[in-house]
Amino acid sequence: MTFRKTKLLPLLLLAGCAVAPMTPAAALDGSNWPTLQQPYAPDAAMEARIARIVAGMTLAQKIGQMTQPDVRYITADEVAQYYIGSVLNGGGAWPDMNKHANVAEWAALSDRYHDAAMRTDMAVQIPLIWGTDAVHGHNNVSGATLFPHNIGLGAAHDPELIERIGRATARQVRATGITWVFAPTLAVGENRRWGRTYESYSSDSRLVAEYSEALVRGLQGDLTGDGDVVATAKHFMGDGGTFNGQDQGETRSTRAQMITRHGAGYYTAIEAGVQTVMASYSSWNDVAAGHDYGKIHGSRELLTDVLKARLGFDGLVVSDWNAIEQVSGCTKAQCPQAVNAGIDMIMVPEDWKAFIQNTIADVEAGRIPMSRIDDAVTRILRVKMRSGLFDRAPSESRYNGRADAVVATDLAREAVRKSVVLLKNDDGALPLARGQKVLVVGDSADSLSNQTGGWSLTWQGTENVNGDFATGSTLLEALKTQLGADNVVYSRDAVGVDVTQFAKVVVVLGETPYAEYHGDVRFPAPIQYSHRRPNDLALLHAVSGKGVPVVSVLYSGRPAYANDLINLSDAFVAAFLPGTEGEGLADVLLGGRYDFTGRLSFAWPGSACSTGEHAGDVVQFARGFGLSYARPSTTGNLPLPTTPGACDPVD
Ligand code: GLC
Predict the structure, then answer these.
(1) Active site residue ranges
(2) pLDDT tens digit string along 57-101?
(3) pLDDT-based confidence at 27, cuts 50/70/90?
(4) Distance of CA 487 from the midpoint of ligand 1 (Å)
């Protein structure tokens, strides 16, 4: 297998356009989908081998190969019995449902699944591939270092850092015997109401395109190394542009916007050799053109005509969690429309037996042509062969079972330093000085949960206590380490504390974790931060105005209107969701060796109903904004527009 490495990005950025690999002008103006330079030269020997294997498979074996159950709902013996091609662990699934399962236990489960797949009665054994959501490090595994979520990494504006994070994440994942990661998310986040805003790198499609290539390269390496994993470009396409930011909702972009904006990350991912694409729950309705493509999972136009035929993607397309049930006429256990549209592997976590039975019936009844099944299985085998699974078991990796391979403290600490953004620093409130007595207040100051956000040990990132993480440091712990424990006093709510006894007050404000639609701020509710978390505003009122500088640090999965909080603070840091390494945040709060370098990758709203970068939005801090010690600037008092009870439509 030869991989043509092309460096497209200088061209892309030079063109100053959303995305324009070496393609006709069409892609530059959105008049057509680009044609891409395919990363892999055709491998006739591999294709012939695949064809021979497929020709020798029964229908049941082919459908089993296309089926992806969740590890909670399938045993190793059933993997063998039903010829299963893949498993996943959804958020909150661990070996034996033990949240504290160690790396060796993860690797042992992988071995059991692998051995089962290799003991079937098939003419040619096909190894199983296990997929996982390692979306900010190997976030399922207790003891793994968790990196900042994508919204913070976007503020770093550092593709080289992203590639290194990809390498480290791949090692973490290989330590557990897993070889497929459902990342990068390539959403171009448009509406702050969206609960998955923090999984988007930026509202700037050019940054998304840069990071897409970087993370695919970091995760996949050359695909065959024992520290490489298969990456996933997701969620194809337009997940970040849904109406009112409703998760799994309807994206109403024009075709030109879809081509130049939401498609941005996919072109660079495909040219970087990404092997899998995950379809989006969302739907696309090009209202302007009167063309409703419907749910992406049922759209042959997008999954086959655009992604596979026009863009030339020759890897596999995987559906999202039970997403096929959202296609008209389908259930979570049967959807010929989705298979015919171009879904190759179906993520059917629980109802996989029924799915296999129903899909065999669909083929036998002619509702799915055998040619489509053979194409899907061919793509699955191609990905498995390219990634070396036919040559080496997942356990044949120097990282397999090694607890130290899931730790990446220094890299994550560097990423935290680069991902936080200084929005205000009046009268030199920052840096904190060693030897000063500091009061630290706020629940989030000592909460690895709020610090890491969703997709952390559990799906929602909830139901965790600090001890569950087994690595990392809260900001409070980091400040005690760096300022000296005797110089730091902590009070969750500042009740009964005489603030004037301290040189500075650090207030750590934070959303509580959420993932996916659980994080949506449903229209027409205002998306003002204090409207959703009034206690944080009350805490600021309790400690500000006492003649002691107040430094506020905000953990949040989205930029949200916070002028009321900012006005009560002398310094204000947007820390987003920094992950397990609170030391990185303390590094920049103390300054000296480290300065703030982070710059917003989303515009920061200046009113309670501003949802993104829509016409009429009030922008308080533009995308690209970020202060530093080296470039001080006075922010002063910000306007406090009234907060309506309900917002007017913006989309
Ligand atoms: C979720 C998410 C997707 C994730 C998948 C498996 O619903 O939409 O990003 O990869 O299910 O956990």
Answers:
(1) 320, 516
(2) 999 999 999 999 999 999 999 999 999 999 999 999 999 999 999
(3) low
(4) 44
459 lines ligand 1 (CB under 6 A): no
Residues ≥6 apart with Cβ < 8 Å to 304? 341, 342
Domains of the chain: 127-402 (3.20.20.300), 409-621 (3.40.50.1700)
Contact, 285 vs 252, CB < 8 A?
yes
C-alpha 353 to ligand 1 mean position (Å):
20
* pLDDT of residue 8 exceeding 70: no
Output the pLDDT for position 390. 98
Residue nearest to atom 6 of ligand 1 (CA): 90
Q: Give residue-wise pLDDT tens across range 265-275.
A: 999 999 999 99
CA–CA distance, 203 with 241 (Å, rounded to integer): 10
650 — pLDDT class (breaks 50, 70, 90): confident
Testing ligand 1's pocket by substitution, the residue of 181, 182, 239, 248 carrying the most ligand atoms inside 8 A of its CB is: 182
| SS3 label, residue 495 | coil
What's the whole-number average pLDDT of the chain? 95
Find all residues with CB under 8 Å of 44, minimum gap 6, and list them.
none
Mean pLDDT of 190-196: 97
**Ligand 1 neighbourhood includes 91 CB (under 6 angstroms):** yes
CA 425–ligand 1 middle distance (angstroms) = 39
| Cβ of 199 below 6 Å from ligand 1 | no
Cα 650 to ligand 1 centroid, rounded to whole Å: 28
Q: How far is the CA of 486 from the centre of ligand 1 (A)?
A: 44
Give the containing element (helix H, strand E) for 554. Answer: strand 550-555
The total number of residues written for the chain in this structure: 651
- Identity at 384, one-letter amino acid code: K
Distance from C-alpha of 180 to C-alpha of 232, rounded to nearest angstrom: 8
Please say whether the beta carbons of 429 and 571 come within 8 A.
yes
Q: What is the token pair recorded at 630?
A: 């080296």
- Token readout for 303 is 């999954």
Does residue 69's CB lie within 6 angstroms of at least one atom of ligand 1? no
Q: Is the CB of 182 under 6 A from ligand 1?
A: yes
| Structure tokens, 614 | 């829509």
